[in-house]
Amino acid sequence: MTEATPADPEVSEGPAGAVRTLRRITAEAAAGLDWTAENLLEATLRHGLFGKAAVVSSFGAESAVLLHMVSELKPDTPVLFLDTGKHFGETLRYRERLVETLGLSDVRSLSPDPATLAREDADGLLFARDADRCCHLRKVLPLERALAPFDAWITGRKRHQGTTRNALPTVEFDRRHSKVNPLAHWTAEAVERYLTRHDLPFHPLAAEGYRSIGCMTCTARTTPAQDARAGRWPGSAKTECGIHARPRTTADSPP
Ligand code: SF4
């Protein structure tokens, strides 16, 4: 693997430079070099491949894999958690357990703006009237604010999670940030094997049939025959919260 440093001009040029860097490492992968989730993460976190990066985590059913890899590489990586005020208590306790177990030292809880909530969601039921608006206030806007000082963010999204994600690239670029999805190609079985091999705690709701876990008000159990994300906003056409909307360009990085 060729290392890129924060001073690498290809990286410091922002998304355009990152695209060129990505093409370079893709060519290296094609030449036989091994690009795994771990070494893509290493290049991103330790060598600044995409500039200054943060992890965004829901502390959901599969989150421990990415967080464990991050903790092994750089435990002081900023980890952004969208604290919508609507999470399951189990998720909040699981977050605390993982933070302690993994030694993550910079987990940041992002809250919605209280004045905006008071104006638009005084009764706390906006999720039932207009889920898109609720997600915008509780997730999209707080994340936009928190990501302002960063060049890139890392997510744990995977293609297996549902039809809306089955073409998920390993790296994509939105209007302002590079977005790195090092586990894009991982299967549910690979996730389970990793959690078991590293003796990582499972989200307590996973054993109760919750395979994709978001806000309590908008999450349901799924059957094994359903996509994991079928349990999100059940009974509606909504499939994503909006934080992943509008990628500008995409590029598939190392396999
Ligand atoms: S998932 Fe539901 S409760 Fe959570 S922010 Fe979106 S609409 Fe609101």
Q: Your description of this structure?
A:
By secondary structure, the chain is of the alpha/beta class. Helix content is 36%, strand content 9%. Mean pLDDT is 86; it is low at 1-14 and 251-255. The protein has helices at 9-12, 15-30, 37-45, 63-73, 89-102, 114-120, 126-129, 131-147, 188-197, and strands at 53-56, 79-82, 107-110, 152-154, 171-173, 178-180, 249-251. It has one domain: Rossmann fold. It is globular and about 55 Å long. The protein has a seven-stranded mixed beta sheet. The structure holds iron/sulfur cluster (SF4). Residues 84, 86, 127, 131, 134-135, 138-139, 214-215, 217-218, 241 line the site of iron/sulfur cluster (SF4).
Q: What's the arrangement of secondary structure elements?
A:
Elements: H1 9-12, H2 15-30, H3 37-45, E1 53-56, H4 63-73, E2 79-82, H5 89-102, E3 107-110, H6 114-120, H7 126-129, H8 131-147, E4 152-154, E5 171-173, E6 178-180, H9 188-197, E7 249-251
Parallel strand pairs: 1-2, 1-4, 2-3, 4-6
Antiparallel strand pairs: 5-6, 5-7
Residues 84, 86, 127, 131, 134-135, 138-139, 214-215, 217-218, 241 line the site of iron/sulfur cluster (SF4).
